Amino acid sequence: MPAPKLKPLSEQVIVITGATSGIGLATARMAADRGAAVVIAARNEDALNALAAEIRAKGGRAEPVVTDVADMAQVEAISAAAITAFGGFDSWCNNAGVAIFGSLEDVPLEDQRRLFDVNYWGIVHGTLVAARHLKGKGGAIVNTGSVLSDRSMALQGPYSASKFAIKGVTEAFRTEFLAEGYPISVTLIKPGPIDTPYMEHARNLLGTTGTRNPPPSYHPRVVARAILYACEHQVRDLVVGAGGLAVSAIGRLAPKLTDLIMSKIAKPSQSSNEPGRAERRDNLYDAREDLAETSSLSGPPPRRTSFLLEAQMNPLGPAGIMVGAAALLAGAAFGMYTLRRSKPLPERFADRARRGIGSLGSEVRRGIGSLGHEARHGIGSLGHEASRIAGRAVGYAEKEARPYLRSARKEGGRFADRASRYAASTYDDARERGSDLYDEARSRGRSFYKSARGGSEDLYDDARDRGWSLFKRGRDTAEDARDTGWSLFGRARDRGEDAYEDARDTGWSLFGRARHEAERQRRYAAKRGEGLLDRIANALRG
């Protein structure tokens, strides 16, 4: 089989199902930020379009496809859309999933079938469609499974069973692709508890107000890093979170003890009095509120790094070297411890039996030899026979002791392996706790900084608002004064014009009256003059 040639992320077209929430949303955003073109698929059309617009606004390339992965025809439409928009795809990430919290007796069979239609058949549909396109050109198929594929979680029975099925079918696909010579890398991502809207989206049949993840939980962007790493590198499995891995390991080493612990902590560790956002509740059959990477539930902040994941992605880096060094130190410490201790009880019994039987055989040989020496003339044959029987007895005793010796050695080896794994687990826990303390300190520092910055910004905003308020009040006062002045000027002008018009009208009236009176007096004077002239004329004639 030719080795798959996986392109750098910036040159890839990546298909991501379940892309509008949690791990899928974080993966889509991270892939777009790193230069990949993304074909995003989910049931929520509004959320898909909003996510595509968000990616394009940042200069990225995105093609939304409304899809229910339980339907093979709709999954085939994703491939067709990728070919139409970008000419094909290079990696296919099967991430869509739904969940149910509740005992198997309480979960209706139709709900369990619906969960398998999405979780299991969705991955089968996606892998079959992706393989048709990639088997000729090469690429990567990345399936999101769970650590619950190694150890089932009580009260998440159908979900755990679907993850067991996903692990099985992923291994089967990988083996068959290898046999056919397809240049396809098939990777199973196995996250532990992740802080996504998973708990709010799940159908809750626990009889409690809400659900939650058993701690410790990780940020979905940690899983997104693992998924995108698998798009660029051929890797079989990647486990995210040492806590989930520890549960898987304990389940293998002490299954009965794990059953007992699970039966006691399953409900209190997964139930909550906090319901979360009602708009997100129960997306088993229909899409609910999306576009959130993390849940709205309270609690410790999710871890943003996984030392275990870093060691898997870079074995020769600091994380891988530290894990390897820790394993070597643990093995050396256990070896020194076992060398300084007495041998295990079965081995001590075997040694004692061997020494006792050997001593008895020697004594028998010496006794029979002495007897043969003293009676060699009469009973030589009897001494020879007795010596032979004694040798057989010694051989038989040593043969019977060997299984106990082998068993003791095997028990010692198993105990050494357990101690080594326990030391590695303890180291992981210590490292994770240190990482948690660092993350918490960093978060608190950022919180204090944001609080201080927020307070300064609030003071600045208050001062600016007050300055603007005083400026506006002054400006309003000036405008009021200006308006009042203009009003008084207008009134004065109006009054002046009225007085002028009144004076003019009065003047014209007086002028008219004077002119009329003058005209009347002129006529009167003329008339009297004419009368005087007539009287003078008459007097002269007489």
TrEMBL record:
<keyword id="KW-0472">Membrane</keyword>
<protein>
    <submittedName>
        <fullName>SDR family oxidoreductase</fullName>
    </submittedName>
</protein>
<feature type="domain" description="Ketoreductase">
    <location>
        <begin position="12"/>
        <end position="197"/>
    </location>
</feature>
<comment type="similarity">
    <text>Belongs to the short-chain dehydrogenases/reductases (SDR) family.</text>
</comment>
<dbReference type="InterPro" id="IPR057326">
    <property type="entry name" value="KR_dom"/>
</dbReference>
<keyword id="KW-0560">Oxidoreductase</keyword>
<dbReference type="InterPro" id="IPR020904">
    <property type="entry name" value="Sc_DH/Rdtase_CS"/>
</dbReference>
<dbReference type="Pfam" id="PF00106">
    <property type="entry name" value="adh_short"/>
</dbReference>
<keyword id="KW-1133">Transmembrane helix</keyword>
<dbReference type="InterPro" id="IPR036291">
    <property type="entry name" value="NAD(P)-bd_dom_sf"/>
</dbReference>
<keyword id="KW-0812">Transmembrane</keyword>
<dbReference type="InterPro" id="IPR002347">
    <property type="entry name" value="SDR_fam"/>
</dbReference>
<feature type="transmembrane region" description="Helical">
    <location>
        <begin position="316"/>
        <end position="339"/>
    </location>
</feature>
